[in-house]
């Protein structure tokens, strides 16, 4: 049995099935992932009420994107019940699964795979994670909100679809590369409900019509490195209601620092990470996400050295 810290490879699948049941996160790089700590803590807690979960374990596997097509059938054959996918697999896996959950289809990316008798069904829990994180950390609901989303990558897609599905009043998307912005706007346009406004713009040139009171969400990777530029100059926007950064390591990016300086409520992406993980576990096991979130948050903070 691997510990939370072991990084496994496809070679380790030769010794499966292990006693009990198995889940795993697949990515490259994967060493930094705190998902094993979160899920194993939640499984251990669940085993108090239901000893069935005592024999279940969540592992981490380093898998190159070129190996994903052979990896998914191997995990199935080895008896895994569920997989999480992280960078760079979320979009690739979309074309490798047998079935895609209706809510995940418009996102074009999956982060959770549930075993079926003959393959995998793909889900995306990132949007749920974001919505739950905003509610838990900032007391905010997406329904009726003005949202300014920064970024046009996979995480932004999950967030944007969640915003539209939950009924935001308007969704503004800012992205550095115009062609990527055009693509996400074109893909989202068919999903825009009546009465909702979807607009894109360059972060260097915020439009005058941008409303006050936006929830500004950083879904770019700008901020992961200390030398990264700000994803947007928040001081030049009509006063936002809150700033949320999907990045949780570092715990406070320059984007969040600049918002805090202006007295704007802020939160980082740890809550999103926790709630998307709790939802994955619910999809695989039926253990309610709301029951796992607190223990997962504690485990994630410990694994990140924050507790
Ligand atoms: P992608 O690579 O798919 O997208 C990256 C996005 O960031 C693009 O919009 C890109 O813009 C933009 N970007 C990258 N570098 C810069 C920069 N220097 N300045 C401005 N914009 C930049 O990544 P993901 O969508 O998968 O992830 C985005 C972020 O969200 C990451 O930081 C990731 O860690 C975080 N995340 C957090 C989660 C959580 O649970 N908390 C879950 C998923 C993601 P362009 O189009 O111009 O290249």
Mean pLDDT: 95
Oligomer: single chain
Low-confidence stretches: none
Shape designation: globular
Work out the strand percent. Answer: 15-25%
Bound molecules: NADPH dihydro-nicotinamide-adenine-dinucleotide phosphate
Number of helices: 8
The percentage helix is 25-40%
Order of helices and strands: EEHEHEEEEHEHEHEEEHEHH
Terminal residue distance: 26 Å
The count of DSSP E runs of length 2 or more, i.e. the number of strands, is 13
- Major sheet size, sense and barrel closure: 7 strands, mixed
Q: How are the strands of the largest sheet arranged?
A: 1-3-2-4-6-7-5
The helix/strand class is alpha/beta
- Rg calculated over all Cα atoms: 19 Å
In short:
By secondary structure, the chain is of the alpha/beta class.
Notable characteristics:
globular, binds NADPH dihydro-nicotinamide-adenine-dinucleotide phosphate, 13 strands, six-stranded parallel beta sheet, alpha/beta, about 300 residues
What does this protein structure show overall?
The chain is an alpha/beta fold and 307 residues long. 33% of the residues lie in helices and 18% in strands. The chain is built from 8 helices and 13 strands. A 7-stranded mixed β-sheet has the order 1-3-2-4-6-7-5, with helices on one face. A 6-stranded parallel β-sheet has the order 10-9-8-11-12-13, sandwiched between helices. Helix 5 (178-188) links the parallel strand 9 (170-174) and strand 10 (197-201). Helix 1 packs across helix 8. The chain starts with 6 loop residues before the first strand and ends with a helix. The model has no long low-confidence stretch (mean pLDDT 95). The structure holds NADPH dihydro-nicotinamide-adenine-dinucleotide phosphate. NADPH dihydro-nicotinamide-adenine-dinucleotide phosphate binds next to helix 3, helix 4 and helix 7.
